[in-house]
């Protein structure tokens, strides 16, 4: 078996649009104080991992999250974060900033399920993304192919750089980006649950395949030790 490499995919901390339950996508709202603290707790739990490279999307919420994790990892002066637009969140077009529940009701008008809960249970991620583009009055929302082609470019860059190095690679991205990506890469990961803020999903890549080690983990969160 080759040395491969290991990816630590971390979702950014809670933002104000997360708190207000708004469609976020490419909208760039700031982390809440609670979001920053959860990122620190996540970073403390990763403090013993020696990262060899760090990537984020080019949106501020992932860049700030990555910086906090590196501070807790005592690697802020050793590693240079690389921002990559390929790892942005899904773009929701004219739905950006709108109430999440209202948007999904609009999407379900296209999909035709009795309830939104049945939509989530009875349709695939590609089907949901394609319906979002169709439901968007401007049709600017990304469908699955548009999203995947963008994401794949970023993944190929990472694999080209880190394959067979044994590197630990931190990738700070977004809830849907990570979830949809892993759903496409890991055959056994069917209908993955939405990711928690600051959670870690660990994936090893070797012999040309992705192997899931953990998904949506927050058990590593570590509070600041008190004197």
Automatic annotation (TrEMBL):
Top-level taxonomic group: Bacteria
Alphabetized SMART domains for the sequence: PGAM (SM00855)
Entries under Pfam families matching the protein: His_Phos_1 (PF00300)
InterPro entries: His_Pase_superF_clade-1 (IPR013078), His_PPase_superfam (IPR029033), Phosphoglycerate_Mutase (IPR051695)
The entry's keywords: Hydrolase
PANTHER family: FRUCTOSE-2,6-BISPHOSPHATASE TIGAR
Name of this protein: Histidine phosphatase family protein
Lineage, opening ranks: Bacteria, Bacillati, Bacillota, Bacilli, Lactobacillales
């Amino acid at each position: 078996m080759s040395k491969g490499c290991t990816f630590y995919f971390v979702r950014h901390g809670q933002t104000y649009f997360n708190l207000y339950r708004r469609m976020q996508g490419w909208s760039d709202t700031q982390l809440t104080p609670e979001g920053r603290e959860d990122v620190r707790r996540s970073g403390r739990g990763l403090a013993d991992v020696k990262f060899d490279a760090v990537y984020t999307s080019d949106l501020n919420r992932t860049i700030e999250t990555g910086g906090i994790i590196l501070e807790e990892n005592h690697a802020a002066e050793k590693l240079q974060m690389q921002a990559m637009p390929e790892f942005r969140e899904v773009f929701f077009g004219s739905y950006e900033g709108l109430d999440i529940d209202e948007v999904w009701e609009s999407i379900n008008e296209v999909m035709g399920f009795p309830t939104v809960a049945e939509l989530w249970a009875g349709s695939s991620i590609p089907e949901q993304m394609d319906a979002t583009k169709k439901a968007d009055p401007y049709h600017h929302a990304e469908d699955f192919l548009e999203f995947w082609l963008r994401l794949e470019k970023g993944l190929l860059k990472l694999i080209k750089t880190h394959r067979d190095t044994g590197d630990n690679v931190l990738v700070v991205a977004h809830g849907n980006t990570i979830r949809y990506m892993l759903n496409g890469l890991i055959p056994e990961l069917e209908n993955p649950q939405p990711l928690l803020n600051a959670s870690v999903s660990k994936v090893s890549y070797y012999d040309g395949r992705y192997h899931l080690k953990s998904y949506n983990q927050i058990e590593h969160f570590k509070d600041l030790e008190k004197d």
